[in-house]
Each structure stands twice: as structure tokens, then as C-alpha cells.
Q: What sequence folds into this?
């Protein structure tokens, strides 16, 4: 009988939790005060037959120690948490440094491209990411069913193949030319989408900056000089360019531009695969068919266009080996670039 009471008290003591002074006092009243559980046990002890007194007496002493130890623990734990919150705070200490955010490397490069072209009079325009076939392909002289459409693996909306995610920012060319008569001198930065397997070198979402210049007497020499200026501003004054013939449905003639390798200066290294050259953009003279499709007089006006990948340029500029890093939002990567101003 007494043994059961002792066990019960031990259990209650063990389970008791106190979060404030009131609860610690509650504990004292319940177990240690005059009318508390411990004294009741002592009262009961008097009625115990003599032959059991020794054994039970020892248990009761142990119980008393346990209760007192618990009481002290409760008191101390409160004192400690008091210390944490108030006593140990030094209000004169300087605060911890605030972590500043940083610009995303793609934003840095995009802004730099915009800066470079705005210095020679190019304005910035934007167009929609969700497009129609006309502005992405047909207006740009991609014939229906022509294999040129396979050059860029497109994401279509299942229910309506006329609606798609733009595969290049050249779609903004058609929109701007439809809406504006020359002179047009603009760049179009934006996000593009291609149905491609994601790897270290390719992503299904990436960014481009398109350039378009349409006016009377715009020549291939203007294109070349504009791109040389860009390359030198972006990669340094020693940078050289070369144009290789290429094909795009919306430009004629078309070219791809290489810059002399910014890593080895053209001697040949692993980044340029020993060639000394790095491909950075596609370009050409706007095909007269495109001008006509957009209601611009192709007898009066000529133009050039170019398009570059922002990731590609950022990878070269910062020597980033895996395009996926730009989309992972890992601050260990992102904070290595310029801090936000
Ligand atoms: N739109 C082309 C591409 O995405 C690039 C380009 C733009 C080529 C303008 C010529 C003129 O590959």
C-alpha cells in the first residue's frame, strides 16, 4: 500500500514540468509543503509494522532526496532561461552583419549587354514568352513543314499547336516591325524555351538578347562593325571577331560570329578546344521576305539582326562550366558575383 503511494509519487515527480515560477511553486506545494505528498508518506509510515520499517524507511529517504533534487533542478532551469533572455544580453554590442543580396550573374550580363548597345543608340523592347506560330516562325520566313522548324525543338500547347513558348527572341523582331516603321534600332532581351534534354551545356529555358536595325542603306559592314564594337566592350579591347557563313530562315546572308578566345587570347586552350575561337552569336541581313511579312517596304529598307545567348556569354565571361548552376538558386554560387547596389 505505502509502496504503491511511493511509486506513484516518484512517477508524478518525474513527469512534472515547470515553465515558470508559478509552476515551480506548485511543485513545492504539492510535494514538499506541510500538507504535501511527502509529509503524507511520513504520516503513513508510522502505521507500518516494525518488521517492514527498515526497508520502507530507506525507500522513503530515497524518495525525499529525489523530490528535493527535482525541485532544485526546476529552480535552476528557470534561472538559466532567465539568464539567456535577459541577463546575458549586451545591448551595447554591434549587431550581426546583414547579408546583402547580389545580382544574378545572368542579370549582370544582360544589363551589361543592354548598356553596351544603349551607348550606340539601341532602345530596349520586350515581347511575350507565350507566342503564336506567326511571330516565332511564319513571319520569320520559316515555311510550313519545312525542316527549318526542327532547328529549334518547340514546346507547343497541346490543345492548340498555334500557341507555343517562343524558341528565340527573334519573335520580337516580327512584333516590333509590324508595329513600327523604320528607323528601328532596338535590342530585345528575354527568356526562351526549347524542348531539349538538360545537360551541362544545354537547358530547356535560357535567355537571349536579340538585336535589330532597320533603316535605309543598312549594310553588312554596319552589322560587322556593330558586332566588333560589342565584342570589344564585352570581352576586352584586344578581342577579335570572325564571321562564318551560316543559315537562318530569316536572314540572308546569315553568319555565325566567333570571338578570339577570351581565356587563351587565341593561342588555343581547352575552353576553345584548341581553335582559338569561341562561337557567341548568330546574325545576318534581315531577309526581304521578313520585311514584307511585317509590312515594311523591302525596296526602300534593309536591316541586320543578331541573337546571342546570355548564358553562353556568362559562362565564357565567368568560366562557368555547367549551365544548370544558373538555375539552381544555390547562394554559394550566386554570391560570387557582384553584390546588389
Ligand atoms: N534566333 C537565332 C537563334 O536563336 C539567332 C539569330 C538571331 C540569328 C538573329 C540571326 C539573326 O539561334
A:
Amino acid at each position: 500500500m505505502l509502496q504503491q503511494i511511493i511509486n506513484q509519487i516518484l512517477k508524478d515527480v518525474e513527469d512534472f514540468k515547470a515553465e515558470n515560477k508559478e509552476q515551480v511553486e506548485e511543485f513545492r506545494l504539492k510535494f514538499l509543503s506541510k500538507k504535501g505528498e511527502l509529509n503524507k508518506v511520513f504520516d503513513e509510515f508510522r502505521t507500518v509494522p516494525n518488521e517492514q520499517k527498515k526497508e520502507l524507511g530507506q525507500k522513503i529517504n530515497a524518495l525525499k532526496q529525489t523530490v528535493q533534487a527535482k525541485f532544485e533542478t526546476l529552480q535552476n532551469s528557470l534561472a538559466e532561461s532567465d539568464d539567456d533572455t535577459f541577463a546575458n544580453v549586451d545591448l551595447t554590442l554591434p549587431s550581426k552583419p546583414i547579408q546583402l543580396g547580389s545580382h544574378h550573374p545572368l542579370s549582370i550580363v544582360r544589363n551589361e549587354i543592354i548598356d553596351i548597345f544603349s551607348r550606340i543608340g539601341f532602345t530596349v523592347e520586350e515581347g511575350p514568352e507565350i507566342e503564336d506560330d506567326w511571330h516565332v516562325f511564319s513571319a520569320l520566313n520559316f515555311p510550313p513543314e519545312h525542316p527549318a522548324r526542327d532547328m529549334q525543338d518547340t514546346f507547343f500547347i497541346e490543345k492548340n499547336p498555334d500557341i507555343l513558348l517562343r524558341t528565340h527572341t527573334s519573335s520580337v523582331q516580327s512584333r516590333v516591325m509590324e508595329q513600327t516603321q523604320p528607323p528601328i534600332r532596338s535590342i530585345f532581351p528575354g527568356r526562351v524555351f526549347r524542348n531539349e534534354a538538360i545537360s551541362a551545356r544545354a537547358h530547356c529555358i535560357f535567355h537571349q538578347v536579340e538585336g535589330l536595325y532597320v533603316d535605309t542603306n543598312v549594310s553588312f559592314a554596319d552589322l560587322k562593325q556593330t558586332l566588333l564594337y560589342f565584342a570589344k566592350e564585352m570581352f576586352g579591347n584586344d578581342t577579335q571577331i570572325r564571321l562564318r557563313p551560316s543559315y537562318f530562315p530569316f536572314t540572308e546572308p546569315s553568319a555565325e560570329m566567333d570571338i578570339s578566345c577570351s581565356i587563351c587570347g587565341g593561342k588555343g586552350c581547352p575552353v576553345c578546344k584548341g581553335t582559338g575561337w569561341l562561337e557567341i552569336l548568330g546574325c545576318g541581313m534581315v531577309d526581304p521576305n521578313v520585311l514584307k511579312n511585317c509590312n515594311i517596304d523591302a525596296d526602300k529598307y534593309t536591316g541586320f539582326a543578331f541573337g546571342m545567348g546570355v548564358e553562353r556569354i556568362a559562362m565564357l565571361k565567368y568560366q562557368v562550366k555547367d549551365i544548370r548552376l544558373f538555375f539552381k538558386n544555390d547562394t554559394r554560387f550566386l554570391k560570387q558575383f557582384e553584390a546588389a547596389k
In short: The chain has two domains: 2-85, 106-340. The chain has a mean pLDDT of 92. Residues 168, 170, 210, 248, 251, 282-284, 305-307 surround phenylalanine (CB under 6 Å).
